[in-house]
Write a structure and sequence with these properties.
437 residues, mainly beta, 14-stranded mixed sheet, five-stranded mixed β-barrel
């Protein structure tokens, strides 16, 4: 399972609620604590999955690139780090910053996201600004190309990396995925590598369920392409939403299926639409999702694999299985139901009344904009008022949320809640708060 983190209460990855109480958690720099996990971080989860729940044996957190920002382009909602163009949208979570305009040239940032090696671009799922220091390395990962063994260089993205060929270093091979770390003397200059590690792909046993989210690369046909360095065969898959373009190089997809012979044989490919990029710089100011832009607060019974969203009418009375009223779907396979779509069992997006299940909900606003629903399950912490408290270390604004459960108007530290909402910069804007104690 490779996907961004979309919630806590255990940990939600790729629509699966994983029990992480016994997980080994590691990152690029070594072992991590559960409290180090944040919304939007990319994770490889290994363990046992049954339906939409699982038990994670290990969680490996990995960023796409770390380094100094050398360009900021607010008109395109993007920044540039050594070798990579990084785009943000309304689903990008921020750390130590609230919006793109908080990031400046020379800031040291770590980017988690979906890598597109063919265009040297990263769609950021999380962007963290960190204290700048001359000792901080430039680091990242990507597919090797343009190897020059004479000069002792190769390229990853648009970055030229120098390795010590004379010192006996292994010459990288075209097409290998490597992680690299080094120091640049100047922004945009050659990176002198301190370490280069060839990343061996994890190949699950035949019959193991797999889910991966990322950008389509190495596309040959629906039966042969890669997503996040995983070989995929989607020749027999259901692709939603139906599109004349279908799957193509550069498409953002979420793939579910079963491994066979080292290949993920897809049964469902969901084409993901990036959230409105113009919202990226107004993060932290977004209103709570309304009837036409709700998040994770619907009620899906008989929840199954849902299709897309965003083709809605006014009050969530969707088409294509439109027996939904106010976001409460009655057939989990419903797609295009204005208030969002459930992608899994029992987790919907809309204005209906229920707790979320274990799915990975996405939210539409009737205009084709897709938001990723966030779920937080745990105790209230650092309570100040309805617009400022935390759950599982994540700041929440519930000032416009629907409240339910026993004594639902009584907020105080320690109360157990389930939050449904969307990320807005560094804050989760709650659409629903359900008290579970």
């Amino acid at each position: 399972m490779v996907a961004p983190i979309t919630g806590f209460g255990s940990v939600f990855v790729g629509g699966i609620r994983f029990d992480d109480s016994s997980s080994t958690i590691t990152g690029d720099d070594g072992e991590l604590a559960r409290t180090d996990l944040k919304i939007g971080m990319m994770v490889e989860a290994r363990g046992v999955v049954t339906g939409t729940t699982g038990s994670a044996r290990s969680l490996r957190v990995f960023s796409a690139v770390r380094g100094l920002v050398d360009r900021v382009d607010p008109t395109k909602n993007e920044i540039r780090l050594p070798g990579w163009r990084v785009t943000v949208d309304a689903n990008t979570a921020f750390g130590n910053a609230d919006r793109l305009s908080d990031i400046g040239i020379g800031d040291y940032v770590e980017v988690f996201g979906l890598r597109d090696d063919s265009s040297a671009a990263i769609a950021a799922t999380r962007l963290e600004r960190k204290p700048s220091s001359a000792a901080l390395p430039t680091a990242g990962r990507g597919v090797v190309h343009d190897v020059d063994p004479v000069a002792g260089t190769f390229r990853v993205g648009d970055l030229t990396v120098a390795y010590d060929a004379g010192g006996g270093a292994r010459v990288p091979v075209e097409g290998e995925v490597v992680s690299y770390r080094g120091v640049q003397s100047l922004l945009g200059s050659l990176l002198v590598a301190e370490s280069i590690l060839v990343e061996q792909p994890f190949v699950p046993a035949d019959g193991v369920q797999g889910d991966v989210e990322g950008i389509v690369s190495s596309y040959v046909s629906p039966g042969s392409f890669k997503v996040t360095d995983t070989e995929v065969d989607a020749s027999a898959a259901l692709v939603t939403p139906a599109s004349a373009d279908g799957i193509s190089a550069g498409s953002r997809v979420q793939v579910s299926g079963t491994y066979q012979g080292g290949v993920l044989r897809a049964r469902h490919v969901k084409l993901r639409r990036n959230a409105d990029a113009s919202a990226a710089d107004t993060a932290g100011q977004a209103a709570t999702p309304s009837a036409t832009q709700a998040s994770g607060s619907g009620d899906a019974t008989n929840g199954g694999d849902a299709a897309s969203n965003g083709n809605a009418t006014d009050n969530g009375n969707g088409t294509n299985n439109g027996s939904a009223t106010n976001g409460s779907a009655t057939n989990g396979n419903a797609g295009s139901n204005g208030n969002g779509s459930a992608n899994g069992n029992g987790s919907a997006a809309g204005g209906g009344s229920s707790s979320s299940g274990n799915g990975n909900a996405s939210v539409g606003n009737g205009l084709g904009v897709e938001r990723t629903a966030v779920v937080l399950i745990g105790a209230i912490e650092n309570y100040s008022n309805l617009s400022s408290f935390s759950v599982r270390g994540q700041i929440v604004d519930a000032s416009s949320a629907t409240l339910s459960g026993r004594q639902h108007n009584q907020f105080f530290n320690g109360r157990l809640v389930e939050i449904q909402g969307v990320i807005s910069g560094s804050i989760v804007i709650a659409s629903k708060v359900h008290f579970t104690d």
